[in-house]
Design brief:
Elements: E1 15-17, E2 24-33, H1 34-39, E3 45-58, E4 62-76, E5 83-99, E6 103-106, E7 109-113, E8 118-120, H2 122-132, H3 151-162, H4 168-181
Parallel strand pairs: 5-7
Antiparallel strand pairs: 1-8, 2-3, 3-4, 4-5, 6-7
Length: 182
């Protein structure tokens, strides 16, 4: 994996100026790096290298925006807390309509004032990237099916789980539950 960039965040870099665009299809390319997440106060994602292709179809009073994501993010492993690289790839769609005021018609339909000349996609990038992360963020298994997590942490977790003796009160509750189901 190549080293990630040390870019400085520029909030204007994620704005699409649509007022001068002719009706029809337009393509925009964006790079999302760590500065983007640092600016949003996100400490879940510790590094990122994503390319986002945005295909925008402009109509008279509406824009159909399709996002295509590809790249990697680095987050802390849920099991060993060591950095793990997660591949991000996917597509999302957003409809932007021109209206009187800002309004969210649905999760994928936004209304913005007719007087606006640009559209900031950064909140949508942030949300879509987080939604593409798996629920469980852990190191993958090797060819033999063994975890590639930090072995010292795995050993400590095993020690802690084997020392656990269940509270006897739970067994009494299980018996009551079984009697109730009979």
């Amino acid at each position: 994996m190549r080293p990630f960039s040390e870019d400085v965040y520029n909030p204007d870099q994620y704005r699409i100026v649509f007022s001068g665009l002719k009706a029809g299809a337009h393509r925009f390319d964006f790079h999302v790096d760590q500065a983007f997440f640092e600016n949003n106060g996100d400490d879940l994602i510790t590094d990122v290298d994503l390319e986002v292709a945005v295909n925008l179809v402009k109509e008279e009073r509406m824009m159909d925006i399709r996002f295509s994501f590809s790249g990697f993010v680095i987050v802390a492993c849920d099991r060993c807390n060591e950095p793990v690289s997660i591949k991000i790839a996917g597509e999302e769609r957003l409809i932007v309509k021109l209206g009187e005021k800002y309004m969210e018609e649905s999760e994928d339909v936004q209304i913005i004032p007719e007087t606006d000349h640009h559209f900031d996609i950064s909140p949508f990038l942030y949300e879509y990237i987080h939604l593409m992360l798996p629920m469980k963020k852990v190191h993958p298994e090797d060819e033999s099916g063994n975890s590639t997590c930090n072995p010292d942490v795995l050993k400590k977790l095993q020690e802690l789980s084997s020392d656990h003796t269940p509270d006897p009160r739970w067994e009494v509750l299980r018996k009551l539950k079984k009697e109730d189901q009979s």
